[in-house]
Amino acid sequence: MEIFNLIIVITGGFLLLVFIHDIVQKKHGILRNFPVVGHLRYLLEKIGPELRQYWVANDKEEMPFTRAERSWVYATSKKQNSNFGFGSSELMYDAGYPVLKHSAFPTRDKYDTEGKLLTSTMPCAKLIGASHNRKNPYRPQSIVNISAMSFGSLGKNAVAALNLGAKEAHCYQNTGEGGISPYHKLGSDLVWQIGTGYFGARDAEGKFSLEVFKQAIENNPTVKMIEIKLSQGAKPGKGGILPKDKITEEISKIRGIPRDRDCISPNSHSEFTNVSELV
């Protein structure tokens, strides 16, 4: 009983101190008008995003990924059942809702000698480079591929996992503008993205070097296409900065940049200023 009384005294004393503090302070009007209980307002404001995410927001209204989309990703990553029923929560007839129509004459499934279904692919209809008589035209083995994410923005484990996944799925991986890292070389086809910083294809002054570019192509036979990135996708019209504190020895070697200064990705290309010069 003495412990219970002690707890009451300590709690009451604490609340009294909070009450005195609230009516004396002049920074927050809510606390002066509603001492002690006014703190609940700031608590609810702080946990508001979590309350809205789990209690208020419906499965389809959050951005950039809805709860339904996140749930599908979570279940898929854990190899759990990611199927969902055809319910009214899916706006299947709205513009932009993806629909896969059945083919009247689908591609035949292929089986091995034991009757096991082999991996099916959905190759790109276009043979890229054929119309310009390129030496090595390329037909992607999948119409669904991995878009550009640089090593540095992603860690080595993430890049390696994506590359191994692309190899297993028979699709290509876009390197992003950060250059070709060792973690891009685990077996999948690559699309080498070259941005305004020319990382992996630049000279000591940061300009595009045809010799360095050719050497990189020779050293990386899995590179099937080159993609030229005209500007920063997340911030068009602006450049990018990688602080020198984040430039490791490995990143410095891959990108061809020094470690004693910030790495600047210009807001535009130095090698061309219009479409004609680009071509």
Short description:
This protein has 9 helices and 5 strands, in the order H-H-H-H-H-H-E-E-H-E-E-H-E-H. By secondary structure, the chain is mainly alpha-helical.
What would your notes on this structure say?
With 279 residues, this protein is mainly alpha-helical. The protein has 2 domains: 2-77, no CATH class; 130-278, no CATH class. The protein contains 9 helices and 5 strands; from the N terminus they run ααααααββαββαβα. It has helices spanning 2-24, 29-33, 39-46, 48-56, 67-77, 156-169, 210-219, 249-255, 275-278; strands at 172-174, 189-194, 223-228, 240-242, 263-265. The protein has a 3-stranded parallel β-sheet. The protein has a two-stranded antiparallel ribbon with strand order 4-5. Strand 2, helix 7 (210-219) and strand 3 form a beta-alpha-beta unit. The longest helix is centred in the N-terminal third of the chain and has 23 residues, at 2-24. The radius of gyration is 28 Å and the shape is extended. Keywords: Membrane, Transmembrane, Transmembrane helix. This is Glutamate synthase domain-containing protein. It comes from marine metagenome.
